[in-house]
Automatic annotation (TrEMBL):
Localization of this protein: Cell membrane; Cytoplasm
Pfam families in the cross-refs: P-loop_SecA, SecA_DEAD, SecA_PP_bind
Domain Helicase ATP-binding residue range list: 131-309
GO cellular component: cell envelope Sec protein transport complex; cytosol; plasma membrane
Annotated positions binding ATP: Q129, G147, E148, G149, K150, T151, D557
Domain SecA family profile: 45-636
Protein name: Protein translocase subunit SecA
CDD domains from the UniProt entry: DEXDc_SecA, SF2_C_secA
Coiled coil: none
EC number: 7.4.2.8
Positions of region (Disordered): 1-26
Quaternary structure, from the entry: Monomer and homodimer. Part of the essential Sec protein translocation apparatus which comprises SecA, SecYEG and auxiliary proteins SecDF-YajC and YidC.
Gene3D superfamilies in UniProt: P-loop containing nucleotide triphosphate hydrolases, SecA, preprotein cross-linking domain
């Protein structure tokens, strides 16, 4: 059995940990070797798909058997006194430490955690939650409908792994959810003798190390992946057990140099499709700014040395290649001056490169052509589009050389230290599992990129959501008026209404339309997020109207007033189609949760971004405009769905390209000895 290093929480160390040896723990950094398989390999994709189809029913059968083993223990465990329950827990911990997550230990741990949850949180896991947790323990993505209680479900898997001595990372989409989930579930973990840590933005390395020392770590995907990148840079590439031990042996006090994580043993990813698929479009880049003064000195010296050279004796210019070449005489003259200047200038390659670049900056880069000076800054002009590119800078010191040439303030260089995609990062976990309400659309990608199978878990009670269809309006303005009128009518019947919008601007338009009808409402968007928790808490009250961006989407639980259910529950109005159908489904999922009543409807306009911002959408609109008869709602609805499918395919392509680039870059950099 692997030992994953010290548990850093003193509270946890004081807690009963029967079976834990007192010998100094080994510091390992477990992570999975980079898999050979690759998304773009079609043969592997087909093979995996077929294996998944064949083994799927057997897998479910195995889960059902495990479920009945767990349920058999429920009665006897419920009859135990508190003291007897604790004793049985210690026994289970001891066995789990030896056997890991075997079927027998899982069934026993689940039964105990379920009962302890009832006694501490007052929440008793439903059968379907046990099933979801078992699927995750066996490395799958549990697709559980929105509102089915994934947070509570994950406590079974995380708790069982914790009892077996496997550290768990519960990955959420943001810090707010990480903190909320950790705090709600803390009493349960405390009683299990497992320590819980929450990683939030701004924590110092020492505090982070303490958090990672806990048995269960709640963190957002960003925080955790950046910590991993920083560790990799510190460890100068792949961590080796031996090198870690040597470090500890020779330099035990060098805390700053030590990694903050204990490796990548087990991740349970909440909102798995969002984290593993949607976020996977952008790579994570860890960069460092160099010292601006040192850059200025370097660039000034390069220019000073370039001043002493003359064309054509010392250099020749190749305008077509935008390149300057030093002649033998030029090199000789530089050698003399380099020796006089000292420092890095004595190094022939670095000296000649710097001077060549300085000459290029002077002779080949022209103001108004390649760049402009804006507010005392050199800003690059894109040669193809003619637009200024505020965020871009030339690399290898060229930007600083142009800045010195123009006499403006020299900015630091951005040096890329490490780069990774979420795809590569999550594949390195020894065990990976996930949960979400919307996985079936991306099950093929989850399987081929992460080797994760999706298991659909039934709802605890039959869903009561009523879908009231799609209406399409010719202009956005008419849509907003209709949305406001509809919300007002529902509000007067005592039902709460949630209006979901795609952008801050759209949320403001919806709010203006409601104000025009004197409809009292709350607005929740990125600009106004201060009272987020309060707005969400009130959104289920009778007659409340809430306009929100996606901030009221995934993970948001809107509790209903007791009499609201009798009036029909929460009504959600979707005012635009998102780029992915899954986001629409998540928004709809705010209503009719846990078998409660609720309804949703869609109100779109032909001016919506999904149609107007893509060439395919614009083309379709133009064809519609030429039609001699008006289009009906069914045809218009289809138009939106097609545009959405195109957008989904475009994003999938972008992810595939990124993964491919990442893999190639990884191979190249591995050859040149870089960490990532
Ligand atoms: N077994 C249970 N018994 C009673 N209440 C439960 C149970 N499981 C979960 N709940 C409650 O259900 C609510 C919804 O839970 P949670 O927010 O975890 O759902 P979710 O599945 O994550 O939803 P979403 O998909 O929208 O993120 C919470 O208030 C939670 O306390």
């Amino acid at each position: 059995m692997l030992d994953f290093g010290p548990s850093a929480d003193p509270a946890n160390q004081a807690a009963p940990r029967g079976g834990l040896s007192s010998s100094p723990p080994l510091v390992l950094y477990p992570e999975r070797e980079e898999a050979r398989h690759h998304w773009l390999d079609p043969a592997e994709g087909v093979a995996r798909y077929l294996v998944g189809r064949i083994s799927g029913p057997f897998f479910k059968l195995r889960l059902r058997r495990l479920l009945s083993q767990t349920l058999k223990r429920a009665g006897p465990v419920a009859a135990l006194s508190d003291a007897a329950l604790d004793a049985r827990l210690e026994d289970a911990r001891r066995r789990a430490r030896c056997d890991g997550l075997s079927d027998a230990t899982l069934a026993e741990s689940f039964a105990l955690i379920r009962e302890i949850s009832r006694r501490t949180l007052g929440l008793y896991h439903h059968k379907v939650q046990l099933l979801g947790a078992l699927a995750m323990a066996r490395g799958a993505v549990a697709e559980m409908a929105t509102g089915e209680g994934k947070t509570l479900t994950s406590t079974l898997t995380a708790g069982a792994a914790g009892l077996a001595g496997i550290p768990v990372h519960i990955v959420t989409v943001n810090d707010y959810l990480a903190e909320r989930d950790a705090e709600t579930m803390r009493p349960l973990y405390d009683r299990l003798g497992l320590s819980v840590g929450v990683l939030i933005h701004g924590l110092q390395p020492e505090a982070r190390r303490a958090v990672y020392g806990c048995d269960i770590v709640y963190a957002s995907n960003k925080e955790i992946a950046f910590d991993y990148l920083r560790d990799r840079v510190k460890l100068d590439g792949a961590p080796r057990n031996l090198s870690l031990k040597l470090r500890r042996y020779f330099d035990p006090g060098a805390k700053n140099d030590a990694p903050v994580m204990r490796g990548l043993p087990f991740a349970i990813v909440d909102e798995a499709d969002s984290v593993l698929i949607d976020e996977a479009r952008t790579p994570l880049i860890l960069s460092r700014e160099t010292d601006a003064t040192a850059e200025r000195v370097w660039a000034e010296t390069a220019h000073r040395l370039a001043d002493t050279l003359h064309e054509p004796r010392d250099y020749v210019v190749h305008p077509r290649d935008r390149r300057v070449e030093l002649t033998k005489k030029g090199k000789l003259s530089l050698e003399e001056q380099g020796t006089r200047t000292g420092g890095i200038w004595t190094n022939r390659i670095r000296r000649e490169q710097a001077v060549q670049q300085a000459l290029t900056a002077r002779l080949m880069f022209h103001e108004g052509d390649h760049y402009v000076i804006d507010d005392g800054k050199v800003v690059i002009v894109d040669e193809y589009s003619g637009r200024i590119m505020e965020e871009r800078s030339w690399n290898d010191g060229m930007h600083q050389l142009v800045e010195v040439k123009e006499g403006v303030e020299v900015t630091p260089r951005k040096e890329v230290l490490a780069r990774i995609t979420y795809q590569r990062f999550f594949r390195r976990y020894g065990r990976l599992a996930g949960m979400t309400g919307t996985a079936r659309e991306v099950s093929a990608e989850l399987s081929s990129v992460y080797r994760l199978n999706v298991v659909a878990i039934p709802t605890n009670t039959p869903a009561q959501r009523r879908r009231l269809g799609v209406r399409v309006f010719p202009t956005a303005e008419r849509r907003w008026s209709a949305v406001a009128a509809r919300a007002n009518a529902l509000r007067e019947t005592g039902r709460p209404v949630l209006i979901g919008t795609r952008s801050v601007a759209a949320s403001e338009q919806a709010s203006a339309a409601l104000s025009a009808l004197d409809v009292p409402h709350e607005l929740l968007n990125a600009k106004l997020h201060k009272q987020e928790a309060q707005i969400i808490a009130d959104a289920g009250l009778a007659g409340h109207v809430t306009v929100a961006t996606n901030m009221a989407g995934r993970g948001v639980d809107i509790g209903l007033d007791p009499d609201v259910a009798a009036r029909g529950g929460l009504h959600v109005i979707l005012t635009e189609r998102h780029d992915s159908k899954r986001i629409d489904r998540q928004l709809e999922g705010r209503a009719a949760r846990r078998g409660e009543p609720g309804s949703s409807e869609v109100m779109l306009s032909l001016e919506d971004a999904i149609l107007t911002q893509t060439s395919a959408g614009r083309g379709a609109l133009a064809r519609l405009a030429r039609l001699p008869w008006p289009v009906g709602p069914v045809a218009a609805g289809r138009l939106f769905r097609r545009a959405q499918r195109r957008a989904e395919a475009g994003h999938a392509r972008a992810r595939r390209t990124l993964l491919d680039q990442d893999r190639r870059l990884g191979t190249m950099l591995a050859f040149s000895g870089r960490p990532e």
